Amino acid sequence: MKLQERGEKLRGEVHIWIRLGHPNVLKLYGIADGFAPLPALVSPWVENGTLTRYLEGPGRDIPKEEKIAILVKVGEALHYIHSEHVVHGDLTGSNILINSECQPLIADFGLSSILEEYNVTSYFKSCRPGAIRWVAPELLEQLETSPKPTIESDVYSYGCVMLHMLSGRIPYSEIQDYHIPHAKMAGLPRWPTGVPIDVTHWKMIENCLDAEHKRRPPLPDIISFLESVGDS
């Protein structure tokens, strides 16, 4: 595919993002040409940066109730884009942003499959080290054709966000990146030692990270669970 044709494909996919409207989905204003081989995406500035950086800085010591509130809002935003027939496909701690009011905004959905067609270094690839830690195992299988992200693989990634949020540690924190695919195929990550994750929360995380994608719970059930434990 020629670069011009790929650019047109990217524009078409970006317009899916532009049409979405949810308080916890980052607004995309449009695209601008002339900065790089890929069109530039134009969005609001988000003061606290990524969730990963937030948890390493000002969000390190926020109470559990606030962490659960953030998870609920991320889950609601993810469920909303699914209701619009969009799969994120690349949810990690690096494309959930935290604004000045400590509200989460998810971004970058649907772009990973487009960007992999470009033989160039992109913002999304270069600024998201370790993204494999959030990827569902079925997307890492060696198939003749690359498997496509699904709602169930998004649930897996959301479970990894839960683990990250509640433990303060990235998924598979005890393992180096190149060992991650084998670890995912071998089974669930171990319960992080020395961190205060409740048994009920860990059970839900395990359910989200089930190697059998059909057994993962639907997002409305996960959101209802988080709301109920947040109120207890």
From TrEMBL:
GO MF annotations, alphabetized: ATP binding; protein serine/threonine kinase activity
InterPro entries attached to this UniProt entry: Kinase-like_dom_sf, Prot_kinase_dom, Ser-Thr/Tyr_kinase_cat_dom, Ser/Thr_Kinases-Pseudokinases, Tyr_kinase_AS
Residue ranges of coiled coil: none
Matches recorded under Pfam families: PK_Tyr_Ser-Thr
Entries under SUPFAM superfamilies matching the protein: Protein kinase-like (PK-like)
Residue ranges of every copy of the Protein kinase domain listed in the record: 1-226
Protein name, entry field: Protein kinase domain-containing protein
Organism of provenance: Paxillus rubicundulus Ve08.2h10
